[in-house]
Design goal:
Residues 111-139 are annotated as: Disordered. One of its GO terms (molecular function) is cyclin-dependent protein serine/threonine kinase activator activity. Keywords: Nucleus. By secondary structure, this protein is mostly helical. Helices cover 60% and strands 1% of the residues. It is built from eleven helices and two strands, in the order αββαααααααααα. Strands 1-2 form a two-stranded antiparallel sheet. The protein is flat. The model is unreliable at 200-208 and 310-315 (pLDDT under 50).
Amino acid sequence: MCSTCVDRIFTSGPTSCPVPHCGKTLRKKGFHKAFFGDLKVEREVDIRKRVGEVFNRRQDEFETLLDWNNYLEEVESLVFDLVEGTQKEKAEAEQKLRAYRTMNLRDIEENRKAGLEEADQERRREDEEKEAAKRRRLETLREEQEAKLDVEKSRRDVLERMANTDEDPNIISQQAQKVILKKSSARRKMADTATESNGSARDPNLTIRGLKKKIAPVLEKPYDPFGGIDLAPSRYALQDHYDNEWLAGAKNDARHMAGGYSLKEYYARTMFEAFSGLGVFIEEEVVNRGPPVTSPAVATAAAAEASGGRIKLGHKMELDDVF
């Protein structure tokens, strides 16, 4: 409705809605100017505010994150029914909203008060931060002014000493510079001490209590296809270069390196093959292995091969040498 119609119809007091078959009693204070150009968006914002005043649960009231997400999904479904649903769905959503308000009136009021307190604390914290920033700016300006005055005073003292004494001008200038540095350091320490004292004397009521501690996420390690197994050689150290007459010409030959081949791969393979059998002892392997277990058919075939002939067991058998 336009503002002229609102003033004309509702200035004298509450009146029923002029829309046919509506019948709701409206008041002038219930109207407000649209913030968005699209009235559909404006209506959705109003519905979300109205639903948010009733469904104002907090995440810390739920046992698990899944319960909290389910609650948020339920609220969004209710808002969608009120905005985009049919007449039946809108009526059911309004009934559900009224029933929830009636059943949880006490919790709704407590959460509303808690929200107002948090907003007030946040506003007070912002005001305190602005005031602290203002004090820091004024303190910085004061320190800069004092530093300029000290420089001017030191310059006058240096000129007077140079005019009235026979001391070396360079020594006088160095001494004056040291005095200026000491004063600036002292002012800086005093400012840091004042900042710490102001931070420690902050009103504890301005802090938000009950917040969960933030835990830094664990950095994900790169994928290891070997599951943490150390594949570094333990019996030798692989070097980047070996003196070898046969490899002397291949190092600088473009035909060997054109395909991306590296001599380090050759070094690694050669050293691995050279040391691969040093940790194997045949006697211990034979003792721990025990006697071989063979089936009768394999034993018969092996005996036939040893005698130079073949034995038929129902049909001709072609057996490979298992050894």
